[in-house]
Amino acid sequence: MTKPIIMVVEDNQTTQETLKRDLEPLGLDVLLAPSAEDAWRILEQGTNPDVLILDFNLPGGEDGPTFFRRIRLDNRFKSIS
Predict the structure, then answer these.
(1) What's the pTM?
(2) What is the distance between the alpha carbons of residues 34 and 78, in angstroms, rounded to a whole number?
(3) Where are the alpha helices (H) located in 1-81, listed in sequence order?
(4) By 3-state DSSP, what share of the chain in percent is helix, strand and coil, each rounded to 5?
(5) What pLDDT does residue 59 have?
């Protein structure tokens, strides 16, 4: 049985580490992406997480809501919660 995959898109390293530390003991694989662009690259490589934890305010390019809309418009990622 494979572990559920959680992708955390968060630019704050302390928050990333806290979420990873708290989620992994629950039997979850945690992927970290510091930006929407990094998260998109991970998705494009074929990783399809079960759940996405998304920061609302991301630096640089896309913010959280814009990234979420882009994911929702792509049929490959419809199963991500």
Answers:
(1) 0.90
(2) 22
(3) 13-23, 36-44, 64-73
(4) 45, 15, 40
(5) 81
Hey, what are 78's tokens? Answer: 């419809």
Does residue 77 sit in helix, strand or coil? helix
Residue 53 φ/ψ, nearest 5 degrees: -105, 115
Provide the token pair at 77.
């990622």
Residues of the chain with pLDDT under 70: 1
Beta-strand pair 51-54/5-9:
parallel
Among 50, 40, 31, CA closest to 74? 40
Kindly state the DSSP code that residue 37 receives in the 8-state scheme.
Answer: H
Q: In whole angstroms, what is the distance from residue 62 CA to residue 66 CA?
A: 6
Q: What is the pLDDT of residue 51?
A: 95
